[in-house]
Amino acid sequence: MRASRHAAPASLPIGSDADLAWVRQQVRQAAAELGFGLVQQTKLVTAASELARNTLVHGGGGHVEITPLDSGPAPGLRLAFVDAGPGIRDLDRAMTDGYTSGGGLGLGLSGAKRLVQEFEVDTRPGEGTTVTVTAWATVVPPARPGP
Amino acid sequence: MQVSVSVSEENAEQEPPAQQVSAFLERRREQVAQRWADAALFRTVFTVSRDEAVEAGRSVAAALAAVAAAGRLDDIRAPGFEAVRDQLGRMAASRGRMGIDTDGLADEVAALREPVTDLLRAEFPDPNAPEAQECVLALTVLMGTLRLVVLETTVSAGEEVIARQREQLHEVATPVIKLWESTVAVPLIGTLDSARSQTVMESLLDAIVAERARYAILDITGVPTVDSLVAQHLMKTVAAARLMGAECIVSGIRPAIAQTIVQLGIDLGTVLTRASLADALAYALSRQGVEIAPLRTDSAGVR
Questions:
Q1: Which of A49, A115, B22, B290 has the fewest CB atoms found within 10 Å of its own CB?
Q2: How far is B192 from chain A (nearest CA, A)?
Q3: What global pTM score does this model have?
Q4: What is the CATH number of domain A10-136?
Q5: CATH second-level architecture of B177-287?
Q6: What gap in Å lies between CA A97 and CA A104, rounded to an integer?
Q7: ipTM of the modeled complex
């Protein structure tokens, strides 16, 4: 099933509320094509929605790069949200549940992190922020250390 | 306008190419229209009679002549185009209905250039003379502008449709339904952005007053994504309804959404939720002392 298709990365602008809806749709479609289950699709789309809104509200707009990863053992989807905004001054605080600078619930970054398998923030004050998340279609539960 | 072109005369006073093109289009309007009537664009739009196609071709040629006479060969806003803008728009729309996309339409308009440039070349004793070349170039520019005008009419027509549909969507998106005495429901469908959730809240609160509702059901079966902003909108709506004396029930939370909400860390503990709209209605009814029970068949028909 895999490896027959090599999907190219796509870049979508994030500049308005309408763009957010488009990003959600495209992420959902890309995830479905890679064989993500419904729950995983929903989680990834929700994470994308949170991060794209951060890009729009806090970063002043930017773009998202959607990269299908179909060379590994399981297909995955990498999303990179890029903005050239003011950056995140206190990343630890921004990652705390309930902390908000935009009047929201304060769950955008921290919640999105819990919804994906890999999560990375690269932020530079005054230069911008790139949040990269990756989700894999089939989650192999990590071996739990014995009690 | 009095335009006399006698290009064959050796020492004729040369007019600007645009004026020559204009004069040519006026003089040869009939031939141009006849040629165009056989081109795909006109032939396929005016299927009833060829005369119609020729007539349409005449008016386009006349418009082009007017634009050239004004010397605005590359101006898509030239007043000369106004006379045919509607007609071109209708022709483009007609091609669109036949399944021709913008690319195809662009090609069909481009195909109008060759017949008319051929006619123009034939006007000159030496088609390779610099004057002839200049005129052909001017006509080519003009035909390129026509192509832009046609495409622009299709784009603006599309924008109108989109704007109209957006309006319609906003209107139909938030119906408040009375399910029972003092019970209203809003089936939410699609993306719940800030503007829409504001509309939802307003129409729900209005309905609570109008129907004297004690119970308000927000059904999110049709909402594909519940992120923290959507959840926040829901909670605000629930809180506002509570202030109006109505109890709010959020229904239609699908399994995938439920798991996502939990992992996202949203606390909907203060919100009364039910899996389906039916469960929510049953709850609202039971709170009002109304019970839905199957008819007892033995007593049916006695009274």
A1: B290
A2: 10
A3: 0.65
A4: 3.30.565.10
A5: 2-Layer Sandwich (3.30)
A6: 11
A7: 0.80
